[in-house]
Amino acid sequence: MLGRKGILYAMLLPGILLTFIFHYMPMIGLVISFQNFKPWLGITGSEWVGWDNFRTVFQRDDSLQVIWNTLFIACAKIIVNLVVPVVFALLLNEVRQARFKKTIQTLVYLPHFLSWVILGGIVIDILSSKGIVNTVILPTFGIDPILFMADGNWFRFIVIATDSWKEFGFATIVFLAALAGIDPSLYEAAEVDGAGRWKMTWHVTLPALVPIVIVVATLAMGNVLNAGFDQIFNLYNPLVYEKGDIIDTFVYRVGLLSSQFGLATAIGLFKSLIGFIMIISAYQLASRFANYRIF
Amino acid sequence: MRKKLSKATAILLITTVAFSTLAACSNGGSNSGNSPSEAGDNGFAKGKFDSPVTLTTIGCINSSYKFKEGESLENNLHTQYMKENLNIDIKYKYVTAADQCSNKIRLDMAANDPLPDVMSIADPQLMADLIDSGKMMDISEAFEKYASPELKKMYSVDDSYWAQVVKDGKKYGIPVLARAQQNDPLLWIRTDYLKKMNMEAPKTFDDLEKLMDAMVNTDLGKGKNNPPLAISLKGNGGSLWDGPVSWRGDASWIFGGFGVIPTYWNKWHGDQLEYGSIQPEMKDALALMADWFKKGYISPDVGLIDVGKSDETFRTGQAGITAGPVFTSTVVRNYVQKNDPNATVSPFEIPAGPSGKAGRHFTPVPTGALMVSKDYKHVDALFLYLNKLVEIGNPASGSEFEKGWKEGYDYVMKDGKVSKLEADFPDKIAVNPSKYFLTGQPLIDTQLEFDTQMKFYNGEKPSTPYEQSLYDLIPENERQNPKTVNDWLGAKLVADQKSASIANLFLGPQTETMKSKGEALSKMESETFLKIIYGKAPIDEFDTFVKNWKSMGGDKITEEVNAWYEAVNSGK
User: Fold this and answer.
1) How many other CB atoms sit within 10 Å of the CB of residue B415?
2) Is residue B97 assigned to a domain?
3) Cβ B15–A7 below 8 Å, yes or no?
4) E strand segments, chain A
5) For the residues of A141-164, what is the DSSP string, one character each?
6) Residue B292 belongs to a domain with what CATH number?
C-alpha cells in the first residue's frame, strides 16, 4: 500500500490540515469587511454594504495622520531593531570571557518577557513630572523638567527607544547564533593575511551576517503597519494622538469598543494587504540585489 | 510490511485523536442547555422547588473577587445556600476575566451557541446588541407575577432605572442598581493643612483658588503642596472619552461651577437634549483650568494619569484637595492616615462656581442589567432567587443573616462583638459573598444605605441587622462623635447638595451615528480640551471644535439622542 514516501507525506497531513483550519478557513471571515456585521445574524445574514466600511475609515480627517504615524513608528522600529542588535551582537562577540558574555546576554534578553501593561506603567511613572528623570537626572544637568508623555515628538522617541530596549536582546540571540556559525578558518586566513580585528569584522564577520540580516529584515517588512498595539495603548493619551495614534489603537477604539466588526475587519484586511505587498517586494529586492532566497 | 502497516496505523490514530479533540472542543458549548423539571412544579409558591431547577449563567470576575480555600465562583457558600434552600442549581457555562466577558458573549452569539439562562451585562453596547438580537426575554410579565413587593418597591422609585433595557415598551432585563448618588463627588480637604495655614474650607471657586495658592506657596511641614488639587483627566480608555467625569479624582465639578457637565446630555438651554461639551460655558471653564494648570494647581500629568495615580498624590499628602464620592472615607482611613497618622481629612460641599451655583455629575443608578434568555423555562426560579437576595440584603432581626453570611467570611467575632474590619480578621482578608451573586452586589433599596448613614449622622443608633452591619464598618473610636464620621458626614453633605447633581439624560446604547462618528468626535474633543488646558492651543480653538463637532456628525447625533429620549419618555 503506502510506500515509504507516502508515509512521510501522510505525516505532513495533520500539519497541513491544522494550517488549513486555523489559517485559511478564517479567511472566509474577511467577507465581513464588506458587511454591516451583526454577530447574531452571522456571515450569511448580515447586510452587505460593499466598500462602505473602507470609505468610513479613509474619509475621516485623521486617517492619513494615523497611517503616517503607523508607518513612521513601525519603520523606525524596524530600522532600530535591526541596527542595535547587530551592533550589540558584534560587540558581544568580541568579548572573550564566556561568563561575562552569557550574563550580559541574559540580562538584555530579560525585558523581552515583561508585558507592556507593566512596563507602560513604569515608563509613565519614570517620565512623569514627579518621576526620577524630571526630579533627579535633568536637574543635575540644569535642564528644566520636560513633560515627555505630553509631547508628541518626545512620545514617538520614547516609543521607539523603549521598544528597542525591550526587544534588542531577543534579536541579538539570533545574530549571535549566526556569528557562532562562521567558519573559524576564515579568521585564521585573515590573520595570516595580516588583518586586524577591525578588518576582520569588516571583511569576514559582516559579510557572513548579511544573509540572516536580510531574512530578518524581509520578515520584518510584513510588520510595516504594526507599530505595536500593546505598547502604544499602554503609553498614549489624548495629548499625543496627533503623533502617536496608530492604526491598531484606532481600530480598537472605533471597531472593537463600539462593536463595529465589519469596520475593524476592513482595516485588518487593508493592513494584511499592505503587509503582503511589502514582504513580496522586499523579498524580490533581496533576491535581486543580495542574491538571497528564503523560499 | 507488518512494520509499515503499524506505522500507518499510528499516524491514522494520531490524526483521528487530533480531530476528535477538535470536534469535542466545538461541541463542548452546546451541551449546557437547561434541563427543565416537570411543569407544574409550583416551587415558587412553596419557596423551594421539589426537584432541582437549573439556572445557567456566566461569571465575569476581576481581581476584587476573593475566594476561601477550595471555593470558586462555581462552588461556594452562595451556590450551596441556593441549592439547599431553593433547590436552584446555579451552573456556570464559563467563568472568565471581566474584560473578556463582552467578547466571549459576542462570540457565543456569532457561533449561534445557546446563551446562558441569565447573564449580568454591564456593557451598554452589548446590552443593546442582545436586545436587538431577539434572543432576550421580555420580563415585564414575569416581574409583575413573581417579584416580591419589596423587590417591586425597589424598582418603582424612578422610571429611569429601566431606561437602558426598555425597547418598544418591553423590558428586556432587570437593571442592577447601585446606591443612589453613589459617585456624586464632594471636596475632600486635608483639615490639618487648613489649620496650619489658618484657612477655611472654600465656599466659592475664588476661595478655592486662594486656598490652592496658599498650599502651593506655604511649607506645610512636608514641603509645599505640589500640586494641591488631585484630579485626573485621562478617562477610562473607552471609545468615547469621559475624562472630566470620573468616580475618583473627578473634575466634573469645575465645569459644573459654570453650569455644564462635559460629555453629559442634558437640557442645558431650552427643552432639547444637548451635548454638554459644546456648550458656550465650556470655554470659560477650560480657560480657568488652563489658568490652574499654569499656576501649578493641578498636576502637569493630569492628562495622562488615571484615577489611581491622581488618588496617590492625595494619599501621600502631596495634594491637599481631591474630589471624590462618599466612600473616599475609606481611602482616608486606609491610606492617608496610615501614611501620616496626624493627617485629618473632612468632606466639604462642592464650592460654587462663577455661575453662582455649584454643579457636579450625577451618578446613574443602573450599572447594568440581568438579562434572561428567551428560551429559559424557569424564569420563576430567577425571581425566587432575587426575592431571596432582597431578604438577605436587608435581613430581619433574628434571621440567619443577621450578622452577615458566615463567620470568617464577611465578619469575625471580636470580644463577643461582630466586626467587619479587615484588620480584625485572622488573615486580614474579608471575603464578601455578595460578590458571588448573579447581580455581583447585594440587592438592596438604592436609598437605604444613604438614609441609614444620615440617621447615624443625626446620632441615631442602629436598630436593624442591616443598619448594624453598616455601623460596624466604622471603627469604634471614630463612632464616638457621629458628626465627624466621614462616611456619615459625606452622606449628609451629598444629600444637602442634591440639587447640584446634574444627570446625564441619555442612558441608551450608542446611536447609529455615534457608532460611526462618535469616536472621531470624541478624539477631537479630548485632544482640543487637553491641549487648551496644557496651554498648547489657544482658547479660541474651542470655537473651531464646536463648529467641527456639529458639522462632522454631532448634529445628527443630537437628533438621534433626542429621538431616543422621546421614545423612552413617551411610553409612560
Assistant:
1) 6
2) yes
3) no
4) 35-36, 47-48
5) TTPPP--GGGSHHHHHHHHHHHHH
6) 3.40.190.10
What is the dihedral angle through the alpha carbons of A108, A114, A118, A123, rounded to the nearest 10 degrees? 20
Q: A167 with A81: CB under 8 angstroms?
A: yes
* Cα–Cα distance for residue pair A220/B486, rounded to 1 Å: 58
| Domain assignment of residue B4, yes or no | no
Please judge whether A239 and B530 are an interchain contact, meaning their C-beta atoms are less than 8 angstroms apart. Answer: yes
Contact at CB, A2 and B527, closer than 8 angstroms: no
Q: Is residue B256 domain-shared with residue B317, that is, in the same domain?
A: yes
Is the same domain home to B190 and B140?
no
Residues B228 and B347 grouped into a single domain: yes
Interhelix angle for A152-180 vs A116-127, to 10°?
130
Give the other-Cβ count within 10 Å of A104's Cβ.
Answer: 16
* Mutation choice for A interface testing from B4, B104, B510, B519 by most A CBs within 10 A: B519
Same domain, B154 and B206: no
pLDDT for the residue numbered A260: 83
Kindly state whether residues B223 and B325 are assigned to the same domain: yes
* Stretch 39-98 of chain A: residues touching chain B, C-beta under 8 Å: 39-40, 42, 56, 60-62
Specify whether B277 is located in the same domain as B348: yes
Residues B106 and B210 grouped into a single domain = no
Report the alpha-carbon distance of residue A272 to residue B360 in Å, rounded: 47
CA atoms within 13 A on the CB side of B306: 10
**Residue that the C-alpha cell 439622542 belongs to:** B561
Give me the number of domains chain B comprises.
Answer: 2
For residue B36, tell me if it sits in a domain: no
Q: Do B534 and A150 touch (CB under 8 A)?
A: yes
pLDDT at B15 over 60: no
CA distance linking residue B206 with residue B543, whole number of Å? 26
> What structural domains and CATH numbers belong to chain A?
29-289 (1.10.3720.10)
How many CA atoms are closer than 13 Å to the CA of A95, on its beta-carbon side? 14
Three-class SS state of B522: helix
Distances (CA, A) of A21 to A24, A70, B93, B106: 6, 31, 26, 21
Contact B299 A42 (CB under 8 A): no
In a domain, B9, yes or no: no
- Asked if the model's pLDDT at residue B42 lies above 80, the reply is no
How many of the other CB atoms lie within 10 Å of CB of A182? 15
Mention every residue, 6+ apart, whose C-beta is less than 8 A from residue B485. Answer: B329, B456, B457, B474, B478, B479
- Predicted pLDDT of residue B212: 95
Peptide bond into B227 cis (omega under 30): yes
Question: B136 lies in which domain range?
Answer: 44-178+368-391
**pLDDT of B448 above 80:** yes
Greatest mean pLDDT range, A72-76, A197-201, A251-255, B237-241:
A72-76
**Exposed, middle or buried, A50 (CB in 10 Å: 0-12/13-18/19+)?**
exposed
**What average pLDDT does the segment A254-278 reach?**
86
CB of A198 within 8 Å of any CB in chain B?
no
Interval B354-367: pLDDT, tens: 999 999 999 888 88
C-alpha cell at B522: 470624541
Rounded Cα distance, A195 and B56, in Å: 77
